[in-house]
Design a protein that fits this description.
mainly beta; 4-stranded antiparallel sheet; single chain; 2 domains
Amino acid sequence: MKKLIALSAALLAFALPALANQYASKAQTRILHGWTEPDGTRMAAIEISLADGWHTYWRAPGDAGIPPQLSWQASRNLSAVTFSWPRPMVYDQNGMRAIIYKNRLVLPMALSPQNAGKPIRFKATLDIGICKDICVPLQVNLNEIISPDSTNATSDIKQALATVPHKAAENIRCTTSAGTRGIILTVLADVPRLGSPENAAVETGDPLVWATDPKVSRIGRSLKLETEFVHALGGAFALNRSALRLTLIGSREAVDIQGCD
């Protein structure tokens, strides 16, 4: 129910974008040009500088929040955009759990040009949610020409890429059992200590299957995660374990686990 209320609030917020206009100054956005890789891919980034006390959301926002959405189809000489999400932080307030970025977010993106060596016209709209005492939607228009030989803020982008969750888990053991509302998943994985506190985010790959807030604990080198999956419409359902994505988040680094077969 908590997640259903949060989803309804997010949809209502996007239905009323005009409300966000007065808060536009709380999130200053610009494109960092980056560099061109040997295969022609352009490594760039979207930088979001947030006012004091404000935050925005990771790709899976948690119990409440608006995940960033980018619409770039109006761009020219661009066939694909792939984001690399830096390590977020887990934030709890009034019983609601959110996965967020504070202060400044540099969101790296790999831009695949249709014609390598030619400029990219990056024309897009970015929809995000920003929060402090209240939460509001914000739509940002991005329009920039990125030349193949331009460079800008390369060190900032590389620093952000260095915090992207990596694949360092070993000996992953996943088991399921019947829960009171759905399916309980228990995961044990050998993971280096990530920095206290250690948290986790669980993505199901199915918008109708939600995960309860995961419980994370340590047994020596092994990290234990437990969560329960619940179907939004109730009743029985099949859990696609290969579609699960688990992100283990610490204060120093994060680990990405894709699939839990």
